[in-house]
Write a structure and sequence with these properties.
Blueprint: E1 2-6, H1 17-24, H2 28-39, H3 45-54, H4 61-68, H5 77-86, E2 89-98, H6 99-109, E3 113-122, E4 125-132, H7 139-151, E5 158-162, H8 168-171, E6 176-180, H9 184-187, E7 192-194
Parallel strand pairs: 1-2, 1-5, 2-3, 5-6, 6-7
Antiparallel strand pairs: 3-4
């Protein structure tokens, strides 16, 4: 068995889920600036996610689901996952984004499981609070190490694909490290760099 872990936002999906949600409240520019700081490694991820989600307070949860169910997926995402599974990979999605998006996309794109964060809501609206499995800079690294132990998969048989600073922690546990349309901070730690928005390019490199 082999293991491949993809990031979701700006990797399997073309954009940042939280920016699409912020659009609904007319605060995309404010939120995307914080996102950029976090993905470039200039701002602690936990601080950034809690600050950004706080700005979404009051957003209707039905609207959240509608937005998350209509996100634009990255070119080649479905095809690449399908081919990797034929090659014997278990394909997992780790996301600092939200379950509303990653769980819905699971059946569309075909990955085996998703781990992400949960937007807290009450009385049909977001409270501005967030919890979940991927809240910290180190979360993806901790989680991939557990998966490797559970599945009996070595570092040599592990591939990771991401674009931002919070993907660095899982790069430590993989011999195949793909920086996909990534920030410079992640490219420095990758051994495969793809700057074209087409995930099938990965298949040419492995």
């Amino acid at each position: 068995m082999k293991l491949c872990v993809f990031d979701f936002d700006s990797t399997l999906m073309d954009g940042e889920t939280i920016d699409f949600l912020a659009d609904e409240l007319g605060i995309r520019d404010e939120v995307s600036k914080i996102t950029e700081e976090a993905m470039s490694g200039r701002l602690d991820f936990f601080e950034s996610i809690t600050e950004r989600v706080g700005l979404l307070k009051g957003l209707d949860t039905l609207r959240v689901d509608d937005i998350c169910h209509n996100l634009p997926y990255m070119n080649g995402a479905k095809e690449t996952i399908s081919e990797l599974k034929k090659m014997g990979y278990k394909v997992i999605c780790f996301s600092g984004g939200f379950r509303n998006a990653t769980s819905y996309a699971k059946d569309i794109l075909g990955y085996d499981a998703d781990f992400s964060n949960i937007l807290h809501h009450k009385d049909g609206v977001l409270t501005g609070r967030v919890g979940g499995e991927m809240l910290f800079d180190f979360s993806k690294g901790w989680m991939i190490e557990r998966f490797q132990q559970l599945l009996g998969v070595s570092k040599a048989d592990t591939m990771v694909v991401g674009d931002g600073a919070n993907d660095r922690s899982m790069f430590v546990y993989a011999d195949t490290r793909v920086a996909f349309c990534a920030k410079d901070i992640l490219k420095k730690e990758a051994n495969i760099i793809i700057d074209t928005k087409d995930l099938t390019k990965i298949l040419e490199k492995i």
